Amino acid sequence: MLQHSCGYEANFHCKNCQSPLVHDDRIGLHCPQCGRRITTICPGCGRRW
Ligand SMILES: [Zn+2]
Ligand SMILES: [Zn+2]
Predict the structure, then answer these.
(1) Are 43 and 23 in contact (CB under 8 A)?
(2) Which residue in 1, 33, 40, 47 has a CA-CA distance of 20 to 30 Å to 9?
(3) Ligand nearest to the CA of 10
């Protein structure tokens, strides 16, 4: 489970390999398996995840 800075919690999965995404302060949201980076909007606050 990932938690956004606003407190919203969600699970994201990679569209390529279905792995759970992880968040890193430098890279942002990405897949640890295939390295794909994902930009998404937080459903809780509408800002970038
Ligand atoms: Zn992946
Ligand atoms: Zn948020």
Answers:
(1) no
(2) 33
(3) 2
